[in-house]
Amino acid sequence: MQLWNRYFLASSVDETLELLLQYDGQARIIAGGTDLLIEMREGHRPPQPVLVDITAIPALTTIEQDNDQIILGACVTHARITHSTALQKRATCLVESCGVVGGPQVRNVGTIGGNVAHALPAGDGTTSLVALDAEAEVVIDGERHWRPILELFQGPGVSLLDSTRDLLVRFRFQAHQPHEGSAFDRIMRPQGVALPILGCAVWVRLNADNSHYEAARICIAPVGPTPRRITAVENMLAGCPATEDTLEAAVALAQEVIKPRTSKYRATAPYRSEMVAVLLRRALPAAVERAKTTMPVTSQ
Ligand SMILES: Cc1cc2nc3c(=O)[nH]c(=O)nc-3n(C[C@H](O)[C@H](O)[C@H](O)COP(=O)(O)OP(=O)(O)OC[C@H]3O[C@@H](n4cnc5c(N)ncnc54)[C@H](O)[C@@H]3O)c2cc1C
After folding, report:
1. Distance 246 CA to ligand 1 centre (A)
2. CATH number of the domain enclosing 126
3. What is the pTM of this model?
4. Can you tell me the mean pLDDT for 239-262?
5. Going by C-beta distance under 8 Å and a sequence separation of 6 or more, which residues neighbour residue 79?
Protein backbone atom coordinates (compact mmCIF):
# COMPACT_ATOMS: atom_id res chain seq x y z
CA MET A 1 0.00 0.00 0.00
CA GLN A 2 1.26 3.46 -0.88
CA LEU A 3 1.33 5.57 2.27
CA TRP A 4 1.76 8.98 0.59
CA ASN A 5 1.79 10.51 -2.90
CA ARG A 6 4.12 13.47 -2.55
CA TYR A 7 6.99 14.00 -0.11
CA PHE A 8 8.56 17.44 0.45
CA LEU A 9 11.77 18.10 2.38
CA ALA A 10 11.19 21.61 3.71
CA SER A 11 14.17 23.88 4.28
CA SER A 12 12.51 26.56 6.43
CA VAL A 13 9.59 27.23 8.74
CA ASP A 14 8.07 29.57 6.15
CA GLU A 15 8.27 26.94 3.41
CA THR A 16 6.60 24.40 5.72
CA LEU A 17 3.75 26.76 6.49
CA GLU A 18 3.32 27.65 2.81
CA LEU A 19 3.09 23.95 1.88
CA LEU A 20 0.54 23.26 4.63
CA LEU A 21 -1.50 26.25 3.47
CA GLN A 22 -1.24 25.27 -0.19
CA TYR A 23 -2.45 21.71 0.45
CA ASP A 24 -5.22 22.92 2.79
CA GLY A 25 -5.39 19.97 5.21
CA GLN A 26 -4.09 17.36 2.74
CA ALA A 27 -0.43 17.68 3.80
CA ARG A 28 0.89 16.44 7.13
CA ILE A 29 4.11 17.16 8.96
CA ILE A 30 6.51 14.28 9.39
CA ALA A 31 9.58 14.44 11.65
CA GLY A 32 11.32 11.16 12.55
CA GLY A 33 8.26 9.20 11.39
CA THR A 34 8.56 6.68 14.24
CA ASP A 35 4.96 7.25 15.31
CA LEU A 36 3.39 8.46 12.08
CA LEU A 37 4.65 5.80 9.67
CA ILE A 38 3.63 2.98 11.99
CA GLU A 39 0.18 4.53 12.50
CA MET A 40 -0.30 4.71 8.71
CA ARG A 41 1.15 1.27 8.04
CA GLU A 42 -1.09 -0.31 10.67
CA GLY A 43 -4.18 1.51 9.43
CA HIS A 44 -4.69 3.71 12.52
CA ARG A 45 -4.31 6.73 10.28
CA PRO A 46 -5.22 6.87 6.58
CA PRO A 47 -2.48 7.23 3.94
CA GLN A 48 -1.55 10.88 3.56
CA PRO A 49 -1.64 12.61 0.15
CA VAL A 50 1.35 14.80 1.08
CA LEU A 51 4.06 14.59 3.74
CA VAL A 52 6.20 17.60 4.68
CA ASP A 53 9.48 16.50 6.25
CA ILE A 54 10.74 19.16 8.68
CA THR A 55 13.93 17.48 9.89
CA ALA A 56 16.26 19.48 7.59
CA ILE A 57 15.12 22.89 8.87
CA PRO A 58 18.16 24.33 10.69
CA ALA A 59 16.08 26.41 13.13
CA LEU A 60 14.30 23.26 14.34
CA THR A 61 17.42 21.21 14.99
CA THR A 62 19.43 23.37 17.39
CA ILE A 63 20.06 23.09 21.13
CA GLU A 64 20.85 26.57 22.48
CA GLN A 65 21.64 27.84 25.94
CA ASP A 66 20.93 31.53 26.38
CA ASN A 67 22.21 32.34 29.89
CA ASP A 68 19.82 30.49 32.17
CA GLN A 69 17.40 29.41 29.45
CA ILE A 70 17.56 26.38 27.17
CA ILE A 71 15.95 26.50 23.75
CA LEU A 72 15.42 23.18 22.08
CA GLY A 73 14.32 22.78 18.46
CA ALA A 74 11.33 20.51 17.88
CA CYS A 75 13.35 18.29 15.54
CA VAL A 76 16.18 17.58 17.94
CA THR A 77 16.35 13.80 18.20
CA HIS A 78 16.30 11.83 21.43
CA ALA A 79 19.87 10.68 20.69
CA ARG A 80 21.16 14.27 20.42
CA ILE A 81 19.44 15.23 23.66
CA THR A 82 20.98 12.24 25.39
CA HIS A 83 24.48 13.15 24.20
CA SER A 84 24.29 16.89 24.95
CA THR A 85 26.64 17.78 27.83
CA ALA A 86 24.76 21.03 28.42
CA LEU A 87 21.48 19.16 28.86
CA GLN A 88 23.10 16.47 31.00
CA LYS A 89 23.98 19.21 33.51
CA ARG A 90 21.10 21.61 33.03
CA ALA A 91 18.12 19.39 32.15
CA THR A 92 19.11 16.02 33.56
CA CYS A 93 15.63 14.50 33.70
CA LEU A 94 15.12 15.20 29.99
CA VAL A 95 18.37 13.44 29.11
CA GLU A 96 17.38 10.45 31.23
CA SER A 97 13.91 10.23 29.71
CA CYS A 98 15.08 10.55 26.10
CA GLY A 99 17.74 7.95 26.86
CA VAL A 100 15.10 5.25 27.46
CA VAL A 101 12.94 5.98 24.39
CA GLY A 102 12.77 2.83 22.24
CA GLY A 103 16.15 1.52 21.07
CA PRO A 104 19.06 3.31 19.40
CA GLN A 105 17.39 3.27 15.96
CA VAL A 106 14.28 5.01 17.32
CA ARG A 107 16.32 7.51 19.33
CA ASN A 108 18.44 8.37 16.28
CA VAL A 109 15.44 9.60 14.28
CA GLY A 110 12.57 10.16 16.75
CA THR A 111 12.28 13.81 17.79
CA ILE A 112 11.26 15.59 20.96
CA GLY A 113 8.69 17.60 18.96
CA GLY A 114 7.12 14.42 17.59
CA ASN A 115 6.92 13.02 21.12
CA VAL A 116 4.94 16.08 22.24
CA ALA A 117 2.87 16.57 19.06
CA HIS A 118 1.71 12.94 19.18
CA ALA A 119 0.09 13.93 22.50
CA LEU A 120 0.18 10.59 24.27
CA PRO A 121 -0.05 10.91 28.06
CA ALA A 122 3.07 8.77 28.61
CA GLY A 123 5.63 10.19 26.17
CA ASP A 124 8.91 9.98 28.05
CA GLY A 125 10.39 13.22 26.73
CA THR A 126 7.05 14.90 27.33
CA THR A 127 6.99 13.81 31.00
CA SER A 128 10.31 15.54 31.63
CA LEU A 129 9.39 18.68 29.68
CA VAL A 130 6.32 18.96 31.93
CA ALA A 131 8.48 18.67 35.07
CA LEU A 132 10.79 21.32 33.59
CA ASP A 133 7.75 23.58 33.11
CA ALA A 134 8.63 24.01 29.44
CA GLU A 135 6.87 26.30 27.03
CA ALA A 136 6.35 25.41 23.38
CA GLU A 137 6.61 27.86 20.50
CA VAL A 138 3.87 27.00 18.05
CA VAL A 139 2.41 28.39 14.86
CA ILE A 140 -1.36 27.93 15.07
CA ASP A 141 -3.68 29.55 12.50
CA GLY A 142 -0.65 31.43 11.18
CA GLU A 143 0.09 33.01 14.58
CA ARG A 144 3.46 32.24 16.19
CA HIS A 145 3.48 32.28 20.00
CA TRP A 146 4.66 30.54 23.19
CA ARG A 147 2.25 28.30 25.12
CA PRO A 148 2.72 26.36 28.38
CA ILE A 149 3.41 22.80 27.29
CA LEU A 150 0.41 21.33 29.12
CA GLU A 151 -1.95 23.44 26.96
CA LEU A 152 -0.99 21.35 23.93
CA PHE A 153 -2.60 18.19 25.37
CA GLN A 154 -6.33 17.90 24.74
CA GLY A 155 -6.84 14.15 25.23
CA PRO A 156 -5.05 10.86 24.59
CA GLY A 157 -3.42 11.34 21.17
CA VAL A 158 -5.29 14.62 20.69
CA SER A 159 -3.14 17.74 20.39
CA LEU A 160 -4.06 21.39 20.26
CA LEU A 161 -1.91 21.32 17.12
CA ASP A 162 -3.46 20.17 13.88
CA SER A 163 -0.32 18.77 12.23
CA THR A 164 -1.85 19.33 8.80
CA ARG A 165 -1.93 23.09 9.48
CA ASP A 166 0.09 23.96 12.59
CA LEU A 167 3.76 23.64 13.50
CA LEU A 168 5.55 23.04 16.77
CA VAL A 169 8.78 25.03 16.39
CA ARG A 170 10.77 24.72 19.64
CA PHE A 171 10.71 24.51 23.43
CA ARG A 172 12.19 26.74 26.12
CA PHE A 173 12.75 26.15 29.83
CA GLN A 174 15.02 27.27 32.67
CA ALA A 175 18.40 25.55 32.81
CA HIS A 176 19.16 24.09 36.25
CA GLN A 177 20.71 26.72 38.54
CA PRO A 178 22.63 26.12 41.78
CA HIS A 179 20.43 24.25 44.29
CA GLU A 180 18.31 22.87 41.44
CA GLY A 181 18.32 19.35 40.08
CA SER A 182 16.10 16.83 38.34
CA ALA A 183 15.72 13.12 37.66
CA PHE A 184 13.60 10.75 35.57
CA ASP A 185 12.87 7.08 36.03
CA ARG A 186 10.51 4.61 34.43
CA ILE A 187 9.08 1.19 35.21
CA MET A 188 8.63 -1.00 32.16
CA ARG A 189 8.35 -4.66 31.34
CA PRO A 190 11.81 -5.75 30.26
CA GLN A 191 10.78 -7.87 27.30
CA GLY A 192 9.96 -6.76 23.74
CA VAL A 193 8.15 -3.59 22.73
CA ALA A 194 5.82 -2.69 25.61
CA LEU A 195 4.05 0.31 27.05
CA PRO A 196 5.58 1.87 30.15
CA ILE A 197 3.88 0.95 33.42
CA LEU A 198 4.72 4.42 34.77
CA GLY A 199 7.28 7.17 34.22
CA CYS A 200 8.24 9.88 36.69
CA ALA A 201 10.13 13.17 36.25
CA VAL A 202 11.04 15.32 39.24
CA TRP A 203 12.58 18.81 39.42
CA VAL A 204 13.52 20.40 42.76
CA ARG A 205 14.98 23.64 44.07
CA LEU A 206 16.56 23.56 47.52
CA ASN A 207 17.26 26.50 49.85
CA ALA A 208 20.72 28.10 50.24
CA ASP A 209 22.07 25.44 52.64
CA ASN A 210 20.39 22.60 50.73
CA SER A 211 18.45 21.55 53.83
CA HIS A 212 14.89 22.30 52.68
CA TYR A 213 12.83 22.14 49.51
CA GLU A 214 12.02 25.58 48.12
CA ALA A 215 10.01 24.26 45.19
CA ALA A 216 9.30 21.03 43.35
CA ARG A 217 7.64 19.91 40.13
CA ILE A 218 6.57 16.33 39.57
CA CYS A 219 5.04 14.62 36.56
CA ILE A 220 4.02 10.97 36.84
CA ALA A 221 2.56 9.45 33.69
CA PRO A 222 0.34 8.00 32.46
CA VAL A 223 -2.24 8.53 35.19
CA GLY A 224 -4.88 10.28 33.12
CA PRO A 225 -5.82 11.14 29.55
CA THR A 226 -3.19 13.88 29.37
CA PRO A 227 0.11 14.47 31.21
CA ARG A 228 -0.27 16.48 34.39
CA ARG A 229 1.66 17.71 37.39
CA ILE A 230 1.12 16.22 40.84
CA THR A 231 0.55 19.62 42.43
CA ALA A 232 -0.65 18.34 45.82
CA VAL A 233 2.76 16.73 46.39
CA GLU A 234 4.62 19.71 44.92
CA ASN A 235 2.83 22.06 47.34
CA MET A 236 3.45 19.74 50.27
CA LEU A 237 7.19 19.61 49.61
CA ALA A 238 7.74 23.39 49.46
CA GLY A 239 9.33 24.48 52.74
CA CYS A 240 9.79 20.95 54.11
CA PRO A 241 13.18 19.57 55.15
CA ALA A 242 14.82 17.37 52.51
CA THR A 243 14.73 14.31 54.75
CA GLU A 244 13.59 10.69 54.64
CA ASP A 245 10.45 11.61 56.61
CA THR A 246 9.47 14.20 54.03
CA LEU A 247 10.09 11.71 51.24
CA GLU A 248 7.80 9.17 52.90
CA ALA A 249 5.14 11.85 53.43
CA ALA A 250 5.39 12.74 49.74
CA VAL A 251 5.06 9.09 48.77
CA ALA A 252 1.98 8.63 50.98
CA LEU A 253 0.32 11.75 49.56
CA ALA A 254 1.18 10.76 45.98
CA GLN A 255 -0.42 7.35 46.48
CA GLU A 256 -3.50 9.06 47.91
CA VAL A 257 -3.97 11.54 45.05
CA ILE A 258 -2.80 9.46 42.07
CA LYS A 259 -5.18 6.72 41.05
CA PRO A 260 -3.59 4.81 38.15
CA ARG A 261 -6.02 2.58 36.24
CA THR A 262 -5.66 -1.12 35.60
CA SER A 263 -4.48 -1.52 32.03
CA LYS A 264 -3.98 -4.85 30.30
CA TYR A 265 -1.07 -3.30 28.39
CA ARG A 266 0.59 -1.81 31.48
CA ALA A 267 -0.29 -3.46 34.84
CA THR A 268 -2.98 -3.61 37.53
CA ALA A 269 -4.01 -0.52 39.47
CA PRO A 270 -2.59 -1.79 42.82
CA TYR A 271 0.73 -2.66 41.19
CA ARG A 272 0.96 0.69 39.43
CA SER A 273 0.14 2.46 42.71
CA GLU A 274 3.05 0.60 44.34
CA MET A 275 5.23 1.78 41.46
CA VAL A 276 4.31 5.40 42.25
CA ALA A 277 6.11 4.85 45.56
CA VAL A 278 9.06 3.09 43.95
CA LEU A 279 9.55 5.82 41.37
CA LEU A 280 9.27 8.70 43.83
CA ARG A 281 11.69 7.00 46.23
CA ARG A 282 14.18 6.82 43.35
CA ALA A 283 13.64 10.10 41.53
CA LEU A 284 13.12 12.57 44.38
CA PRO A 285 16.36 11.75 46.30
CA ALA A 286 18.29 11.64 43.00
CA ALA A 287 17.05 15.15 42.09
CA VAL A 288 17.92 16.39 45.61
CA GLU A 289 21.47 15.00 45.48
CA ARG A 290 22.04 16.60 42.07
CA ALA A 291 20.65 19.93 43.27
CA LYS A 292 23.40 20.03 45.91
CA THR A 293 26.16 19.99 43.28
CA THR A 294 24.76 22.11 40.43
CA MET A 295 27.23 24.88 39.55
CA PRO A 296 26.33 28.40 38.34
CA VAL A 297 25.89 28.59 34.55
CA THR A 298 28.78 31.09 34.29
CA SER A 299 31.26 28.56 35.71
CA GLN A 300 30.75 26.11 32.84
C1 LIG B 1 9.82 0.67 18.50
C2 LIG B 1 9.37 1.98 19.10
C3 LIG B 1 9.63 2.24 20.44
C4 LIG B 1 9.22 3.44 21.00
N5 LIG B 1 9.49 3.65 22.32
C6 LIG B 1 9.11 4.81 22.90
C7 LIG B 1 9.42 5.05 24.28
O8 LIG B 1 10.04 4.24 24.96
N9 LIG B 1 9.00 6.23 24.81
C10 LIG B 1 8.33 7.18 24.08
O11 LIG B 1 7.99 8.24 24.62
N12 LIG B 1 8.04 6.97 22.77
C13 LIG B 1 8.40 5.83 22.17
N14 LIG B 1 8.11 5.60 20.84
C15 LIG B 1 7.33 6.59 20.11
C16 LIG B 1 8.13 7.60 19.25
O17 LIG B 1 9.39 7.12 18.90
C18 LIG B 1 8.33 8.94 19.94
O19 LIG B 1 7.10 9.46 20.37
C20 LIG B 1 9.02 9.96 19.03
O21 LIG B 1 9.50 11.03 19.82
C22 LIG B 1 8.10 10.52 17.95
O23 LIG B 1 8.83 11.49 17.22
P24 LIG B 1 8.90 11.45 15.63
O25 LIG B 1 9.83 12.55 15.24
O26 LIG B 1 9.24 10.10 15.12
O27 LIG B 1 7.39 11.82 15.27
P28 LIG B 1 6.60 11.53 13.92
O29 LIG B 1 6.24 10.10 13.85
O30 LIG B 1 7.30 12.12 12.75
O31 LIG B 1 5.30 12.42 14.19
C32 LIG B 1 4.39 12.09 15.23
C33 LIG B 1 3.16 13.00 15.08
O34 LIG B 1 3.49 14.34 15.41
C35 LIG B 1 3.31 15.22 14.30
N36 LIG B 1 4.48 16.10 14.35
C37 LIG B 1 5.78 15.72 14.45
N38 LIG B 1 6.56 16.80 14.60
C39 LIG B 1 5.75 17.89 14.57
C40 LIG B 1 5.98 19.30 14.68
N41 LIG B 1 7.20 19.83 14.89
N42 LIG B 1 4.92 20.14 14.59
C43 LIG B 1 3.66 19.63 14.42
N44 LIG B 1 3.39 18.32 14.32
C45 LIG B 1 4.42 17.45 14.40
C46 LIG B 1 3.23 14.31 13.07
O47 LIG B 1 2.40 14.86 12.05
C48 LIG B 1 2.59 13.05 13.67
O49 LIG B 1 1.21 13.21 13.77
C50 LIG B 1 8.53 4.42 20.22
C51 LIG B 1 8.30 4.16 18.87
C52 LIG B 1 8.71 2.96 18.31
C53 LIG B 1 8.46 2.72 16.85
Report:
1. 37
2. 3.30.465.10
3. 0.97
4. 97
5. 98, 104, 107, 108
